[in-house]
Amino acid sequence: MNSPQRTAAVDLGQIDAIVARCTGQKWALIPLLQGIQEEFGYIPPQSIPIIARALGLFPSQVQGVISFYEQLYTEPRGRKVVRVCRGTACHVRGGKTILKLVKRHLGIEEGQTTADLEYTLETVACIGVCALAPNMVVADHVHGHMNPKKLEQLFKRRDTKGDNSNTGD
Ligand code: FES
User: Fold this and answer.
1) Residue 87 has what pLDDT?
2) To 5 degrees, how large is the angle CA 129–CA 132–CA 138?
3) Which among 69, 126, 129, 151 would be 20 to 30 A from 63, CA to CA?
4) How far is the CA of 144 from the centre of ligand 1 (A)?
């Protein structure tokens, strides 16, 4: 499997080559979109008319499917997705402050990605580990009992070795 390119530069020839494998196969739309996202890390908007033409669909139909599935993105995503819990248990234990501090550390708002494509920030309704509240997830690792100090240490590693720990304690 190729690693996602995650850059703004998109090779249209590469998109053509991927799409060509599915020409005329309307049923292949979702696997095709997933394949393009796997290749580029997202679905470049320039690929939508190419896909539509190859599959005999309107671009609006392709866009409609992309919009329907939350797992499909038309903007580059960060290598690590930061998900801050905004559920009730986390909220009453300071989740709002954690979100505010994460935004400050990363310099982005919810739904945005840092300019270096390192982090994408999202919020979630509940991570499912309420006993550890307030919680956040960084690159699929749960970080429980978050507080400003832990948060600072977590993002301090950004410049050294990045996040690779699971600190649910
Ligand atoms: S409310 Fe945050 S983990 Fe459940």
Assistant:
1) 97
2) 75
3) 126
4) 10
